[in-house]
Each structure stands twice: as structure tokens, then as C-alpha cells.
Amino acid sequence: MRVKGQLITLEGIDGSGKSTVARLIAKRLHEAVPQRKIILTAEPTGGQAGKILKAQLSASDGSEPSVARRMEELFLFMADHADQLEKLIYPSLQEGAIVISDRYADSTAAYQGVTLRGVVPDPVQWIREIYSPWNRHPDRTLLFSLDPVLALQRMQSRPEREKFERLEFLREVDKNFRHLAALEPDRFVTIDASRAADDVAGQAMMPILKLLEQA
Ligand code: TYD
User: Fold this and answer.
1) Does the chain have fewer CB atoms within 10 Å around its N or its C terminus?
2) Are 145 and 175 contacting, i.e. CB atoms less than 8 angstroms apart?
3) Is the Cβ atom of 103 under 6 angstroms away from ligand 1?
4) pLDDT for position 163
5) Domains along the chain?
6) Please, which residues have CB within 8 angstroms of residue 111's CB and are 6 or more apart in sequence?
7) Does 47 sit in the ligand 1 pocket, CB within 6 Å?
8) Is 138 in the pocket of ligand 1 (CB under 6 A)?
9) How many A from CA of 54 to the centre of ligand 1?
10) Strand-by-strand arrangement of the 38-42 sheet
11) pLDDT at 1
């Protein structure tokens, strides 16, 4: 029987430690299932739209952009996502790989679901509906949950000051993530991200190994 690939996405607010844990998970998976190919990726990607986004994020002075710029940002995130589906996600799944994506479409629903409030009536739902006909749904999504106050404290040591790194904003993004998890309880697993990275990776491995057993 052909082994199908699995898509596992990692989500959470800035400072939740996802990226560190993502690397630990990839390493542990290499050890646990050496016969499987493991692909670790992230959004925004290094592709064309992703590069524009990264440049805009680091150039931001924290002031609120115009509605037009916020819409542009939404569609750049979506374009970047479409590009990653085409270039990496579909071909890797086709080969039977386990793909781990540090952020995915749920980040767009959670973050742009905040930036587009007042622009469209229910931005989280609207963004979900735009994605729904063409997105590859993740097989499992791990939501790294951390009090935004703690997340912000963790980020104080970071050199870059991006606009997203603000408490009130992160609180709203956090609410959106929890709302998304409640909408799809079979897909989402919430992980307590307040502990040390090794412990968090240990917690994260359990639902991943369970998913692989079911495949
Ligand atoms: P990321 O590279 O994960 O941040 P970090 O610098 O912590 O590694 O993501 C950059 C920022 O982009 C982050 O604040 C979350 C935001 N973002 C969105 O607003 N929408 C999206 O669709 C994605 C993927 C990220």
C-alpha cells in the first residue's frame, strides 16, 4: 500500500516558541520514523510574495497601515501560501513525506482576522471561506498556547520590533486562534507552550505519533 504524506501545521502567537519546537519535532521525527522523509517549512516563505512580506514586516514602524495596504498584505499572505502549496506541499505529500509547516493558513485567518476588523464584517470567517475551495487542509494542527503577556516578555530580547509584537494585538490574535481551534476540535490539538522547549516538543510529539499510527 502506498504511504500517503501527512501535513502537520504549527500555529500560535509570536513568542510562543513554535519555530524552536518545530526544529526539535523534525529532529525527533527523524529518529522515530527514519524511513519517512520529513520536510520542515514555514510561512511566510522565501518565495517572491514571502520576501515582499518579510521586507514590509521589518520596515514597519508599528503605525496602522491604510485599509488598502492591509488588503494588500492579506493577498500577499494568500499568494505566498498558494506558492508554497504548489512548490512544496503538494509535491512533498505526493512523495509520501511528513510535512511540518511553521504557520499556515490559520495564521492568515487569525492575524488578518484582526487587521481587517471593520473592513469586512467577519474577517476570520471571510478568510476561511476564501481559502476553503483550494487549500490543502492540514491533517493535524498544533496550537501553541501561551499567555500573550509571557509571549511578549519572551520577545523582549529579540532585536527586531515588528508591528505584530504588541500585547493588545496578540491578545486578539490569540482569541482568533482559540476560536479556530473550537471550530475544528478534531484537527486542532492545543499544546501548553509555557514550559521549556524540550517539554513542549515532547507534548507535541504525542498527537503527531498518534496521527502517523492511524495512517
Ligand atoms: P514569523 O516568520 O512566524 O515570525 P517570527 O519573526 O516570529 O519567526 O511570521 C512573521 C509575522 O507574520 C508574524 O507576526 C505572524 C505574521 N503572519 C500573518 O500576519 N499572517 C500570516 O498568514 C502569516 C503566515 C504570518
Assistant:
1) N
2) no
3) yes
4) 42
5) 6-214 (3.40.50.300)
6) 164, 173, 176
7) no
8) no
9) 9
10) 38-42, 98-102, 6-12, 140-145, 188-192
11) 42
Q: What is the pLDDT of residue 26?
A: 98
Q: Is any atom of ligand 1 closer than 6 Å to the C-beta of 113? A: no
d(CA 87, CA 154): 33
pLDDT tens digit string along 50-81? 999 999 988 987 788 999 999 999 999 999 99
Q: Which residues of the chain have pLDDT under 70?
A: 1-3, 157-165
Orientation angle between helical segments 167-183 and 123-131, nearest 10 degrees? 50
Rg, the chain, Cα only: 17
Nearest CA to ligand 1 atom 19: 111
Residue 200 to residues 146, 195, 204: CA-CA distances in angstroms?
A: 11, 6, 6
Question: Nine-digit cell at 186?
Answer: 478534531
